[in-house]
């Protein structure tokens, strides 16, 4: 089985590490715009061979793990090159524009739109590790547009590396993910920005930063090259979530100005219910 991973970073690299474990006969080929990443991935065993787009005609599986704006550009070309029996899937955080881009492609049935809800703030080949996807949700969009045999192939792989499957239409995916993922990244980036700007005048501020700050700002270490295209592609949904978030922040500020700490307590207490929600999805 020839598996090509385009983008040998955290998600793509971790996925092919798991595939190598579950399918020892598989040969893993890597394609990346950064040749240093390819050399590094080869050295540490994330991939077994370097490859080019021209070699995709011998692929059985192609995993696209690159920024979503680049995916839109290269996906039609990938589908044109691969064989009729090749499974192609992406792992991007937006789905609507990607699905729309290839909706009339002659090999649309070779493509499966997926989004594994997994990851860390780290990037590059050295960030890849086994078991990243254990008990993680993988959202699949427009499954009915993918050839049934290729669906089966994909589901077998996802099951073997430990993922749970959730089906959703692309528009709903983009709307919901704006709330639970995209907004949290924006919040983290802007909290980091706020503190960095303050730190210019108070040099010891980071000495007082505890685990709460570290966990909240963790996502601000994520790659801007990956997240800027995500925000662009999901602009309308992200703006909607920001408007609601800003409204809540402004309301909290007004309560502070009024010294209405009873209402602040009530709002925080009602929000504590999120503990039960999050515990239920672990």
Automatic annotation (TrEMBL):
Coiled coil: none
Source species of the chain: Tenacibaculum piscium
UniProt GO molecular function: NAD+ binding; prephenate dehydrogenase (NAD+) activity; prephenate dehydrogenase (NADP+) activity
Gene3D superfamilies: 6-phosphogluconate dehydrogenase C-terminal like domain, NAD(P)-binding Rossmann-like Domain
Protein name: Prephenate dehydrogenase
One Gene Ontology term from the biological process aspect of the record: tyrosine biosynthetic process
Keyword terms of this UniProt record: Oxidoreductase
NCBIfam families: PRK08507.1
PANTHER family: PREPHENATE DEHYDROGENASE (PTHR21363), PREPHENATE DEHYDROGENASE [NADP(+)] (PTHR21363:SF0)
Record-linked InterPro entries: 6-PGluconate_DH-like_C_sf, NAD(P)-bd_dom_sf, PDH_C, PDH_N, Preph/Arog_dehydrog, Prephen_DH
Pfam family, one: PDH_N
Start and end residues of each Prephenate/arogenate dehydrogenase domain: 1-282
Residue stretches spanning the membrane: none
Record bears the keyword Cytoplasm: no
